Amino acid sequence: MNIKVSNLSKVYIKRNKRIEVIKDFNYLFESGKLYLIKGESGKGKTTLLTLLALLQNETGGEIYFDNEKVNSLNNERKCSIRKERIGIVFQDYNLFEGLTVLENIILLDVCENRWNKQEIIKKATEILDLLNLGHRATHYPFELSGGEQQRVGIARAIIKNPSVLICDEPVSNLDDENAKRIVDFINDYCHKNNKLVIVTSHNEYFDTYSDQILRF
Prior knowledge:
Largest sheet: 5 strands, parallel
Strand content: 25-35%
Structural class: alpha/beta
CATH topology: Rossmann fold
CATH architecture: 3-Layer(aba) Sandwich
Order of helices and strands: EEEHEEHEHHHEHEE
Helix content: 25-40%
Number of domains: 1
CATH superfamily: P-loop containing nucleotide triphosphate hydrolases
Strand order of the largest sheet: 6-7-8-3-9
Mean pLDDT: 92
Distance between the termini: 24 Å
Shape: globular
Number of strands: 9
């Protein structure tokens, strides 16, 4: 799936002050490529990701998924598109502390009856093994390291095999070994499966893997 943005803008109003975070941004993100967005904090990197993931509304401009204009759709349709086509990896993991690793990964799919429970457990187990987390399936988030929690977040994001994977600082505050493991996995997911991957990162881990680097 390709994502095209045209004259995309985002403005926040804070204490009666107009803060223009993104202004007239135009770009075509193509399937099978890994895009790295770099820049200082507060320059709009995370805002762009949330707009592309349909998590908030733009101030102006248009967003197309392939040939479908999606930013003007109603919230129900946007939610459906996110569930079906977009995987999101949050910087702060967003795991449910009261659920095991396996339960965190399969929760949404089980609740929505999109998979037979045994099938989704099998698929989740395979992904955990790929991420070297099979031995952690019955553990809880508080028992995991930061790198392990981030890998769980990635597993949860790709369990539905999304066309688009959006990652906000997926290797921040991780040691070199864990960062490399995550970068390698995301790179393989993109280039071996012809997926569109968009990543923000303030360090150089993704530089050599990226097809395009955008600087904000």
